[in-house]
Amino acid sequence: MSNVAGLTGQLITNAQGQVIGTLPLLVNPASLAGAAAASALPAQGLQLQTVCPQLLLNSQGQIIATIGNSPTAAAPSAASVLPKATVPLTLTKTSTPVLKFTSLTSTGAIVCGDMPTVGQLVSKPQSAVNEEEAINLEEIREFAKNFKIRRLSLGLTQTQVGQALTATEGPAYSQSAICRFEKLDITPKSAQKLKPVLERWLAEAELWNQKGQQNLMEFVGGEPSKKRKRRTSFTPQAIEVLNTYFEKNSLPTGQEITEIAKELNYDREVVRVWFCNRRQTLKNTSKINLFQVR
DNA sequence: ATGCATGAGGT
DNA sequence: CCTCATGCATT
Questions:
Q1: According to the UniProt record, which residues make up the DNA-binding region (predicted)?
Q2: Strand B contact at CB of residue A60, distance < 7 A
């Protein structure tokens, strides 16, 4: 397992430890933002934009176009890319301390009333977790970690990966999905489904990066798409009330939802969805992630 | 990074 | 109506 590849490139992180950029493996003189990245970086608020040799990005980090092997191929040095000298990098497999979480939620003490409580939502419905699952989870956790590192080493943002994934064949995923996968803010099931996709894509991306560059990352402006309802923004007061209700009962009846909506003066449907999302969020952030230090 | 929305599949 | 997987839009 852990077939990590040594990777170079330095990660730039902010105070929260979040990666906000990377230093290119090789400075690309041709890139516009490249110059900025080369300079010192004392400030913590600076927002660098690492540019992938093959891609032209706009200020939002979105792919505007790809520098293909077109005739007027500029930037002769762009092809340099990483001198496969990746060897020197420590690939300490720092195998994680194997966190066992066997009966993490063996709370069999829940007295079943009729309304599921928050505690019940979080706990396992039945049988304990078996070894197999635990192993799988660890594997995914490792991959997620690696994926992020390798993605950054390629100088790609979550958005770019999402666009590429959408542009190329195979399952398409958005920036949100990439983000959630990296954070494992999803169910184990989703993670297992995503892993192969990302694994495959990443391998290809690294290959393209290594060799010249194929403009397989084609993507023509997305279509208009339907009009989506504007996102409701609850007031802090409303959120407070909703949370209070949720703590009491996370699964209110239609009648109750109607009343709550009336009280807060919000669309009934909006309130219903709020509860749905609240329940879902609670679940997603309590499985794989539960034993993760965040 | 995350909040709300959507839609598919189930009861 | 619910859960789930996802994504658009916003913070």
A1: 227-286
A2: no
Predicted model pTM:
0.65
The residue that minimises its CA distance to C1' of C10 is A231
In order of their start, the domains of chain A are: 133-220 (1.10.260.40), 236-291 (1.10.10.60)
**Separation of alpha carbons A69 and A208, rounded Å:** 12
With contact defined as beta carbons under 8 Å apart, do A125 and A112 qualify? no
Question: Is the C-beta atom of A157 closer than 7 angstroms to strand C?
Answer: no
> Does pLDDT of A272 surpass 60?
yes
